[in-house]
Automatic annotation (TrEMBL):
One Pfam match: Methyltransf_25
Keywords: S-adenosyl-L-methionine, Transferase
EC nos: 2.1.3.-
Designated name of the protein: Carboxy-S-adenosyl-L-methionine synthase
Catalytic activity field: prephenate + S-adenosyl-L-methionine = carboxy-S-adenosyl-L-methionine + 3-phenylpyruvate + H2O
Family, per entry: Belongs to the class I-like SAM-binding methyltransferase superfamily. Cx-SAM synthase family.
Lineage: Bacteria, Pseudomonadati, Campylobacterota, Epsilonproteobacteria, Campylobacterales
Residues of the Methyltransferase domain: 56-151
One of the GO biological process terms: tRNA wobble uridine modification
Main function: Catalyzes the conversion of S-adenosyl-L-methionine (SAM) to carboxy-S-adenosyl-L-methionine (Cx-SAM).
Gene, per the UniProt record: cmoA
Top-rank EC class of the record's enzyme: transferase
Length: 236
């Protein structure tokens, strides 16, 4: 279904409710530049490290697209766990898992309440940005502590520039991208307002500092398009 959520006048903050969930796959594909490429890289790099029966967590799994693709791209069997606190998203995830015949454990939980036992790989694409900064640092520490030795954390985030002028150019370029995807200026402005104080982006440097402060020995940018970046962190 086509995302028309912000065509009408909206006063409330952005939420992962029934309306957003019903168009979410289209919203993501049209709102995150190179989303499919980022997902392909996430899966390929994940598969470089995964062995039979490893446990994989997807934080903010939404409609489970990434875990389904991961399962489809490997002949190995993994213990796949998707976590999200939006019932509307998880209802879609459940239907998709059935339709694709993929076995994924879906947990309707807050990310802070999970133990991340036996985690070999943790994925979190465009989710940490919705967690308040202090809580975000705590969650990343918890992920680090529970990852197995040589465990991997792959995450993607909307990012900002630490340079004011470049930051404004990032936003202009991003809104041009949104226009090419068929979003009107009104829709763009409305969503921007709805996301204010809900989506809190860090700079590349802040993301890497958070990761190294949590204890990871290594963090690199795997992919970047202007204000969207994918990172890989390794626990050694
Ligand atoms: C932008 S979406 C993630 C997209 C998804 N990773 C993908 O690539 O298809 C963010 C998701 O995180 C979930 N989320 C946000 N905060 C959460 C929290 N504290 N606990 C659990 N899920 C959360 C939302 O419900 C939403 O489905
Ligand atoms: O549309 C925007 O402005 C976005 O930031 C895209 C974004 C994201 O990065 O998470 C914001 C909300 C939705 O979850 C889907 C995509």
């Amino acid at each position: 279904m086509t995302d028309k959520v912000f065509e009408k006048s909206i006063k409330k903050q952005f939420e992962f409710d029934e309306e957003v969930a019903s168009v979410f796959d289209d919203m993501l594909n049209r709102s995150v530049p190179f989303y499919k490429e980022m997902q392909r890289l996430t899966i390929n790099f994940a598969l470089n490290y995964l062995e039979e029966n490893d446990t994989v967590y997807d934080l903010g799994c939404s409609t489970a697209s990434t875990l389904i693709e991961l399962a489809k791209h490997s002949s190995k069997k993994f213990d796949l766990i998707g976590i999200d606190n939006s019932s509307a998203m998880l209802a879609r995830a459940e239907n998709k898992c059935k339709a694709f015949g993929v076995d994924i454990k879906l947990l309707n939980e807050d990310l802070h309440n999970i133990d991340y036992e036996n985690a070999k790989l943790v994925i979190s694409n465009y989710t940490l940005q919705f967690i308040r900064p202090l809580q975000r640092e705590k969650l990343v520490k918890k992920i680090y502590e529970n990852l197995e030795e040589n465990g991997i954390f792959i995450f993607s985030e909307k990012v900002i520039s630490s340079d004011k002028v470049l930051g404004k150019q990032y936003i202009d370029e991003y809104y041009e991208f949104k226009k090419t995807q068929g979003y009107s200026e009104f829709e763009i402005a409305q969503k921007r307002e709805a996301l204010e104080n809900v989506l809190i982006p860090y700079t590349d440097e802040e993301n890497k500092k958070m990761i190294l402060d949590a204890g990871f020995s290594h963090c690199e940018t795997l992919f970047k398009w202007v204000n969207f970046a994918t990172f890989i962190a390794i626990k050694k």
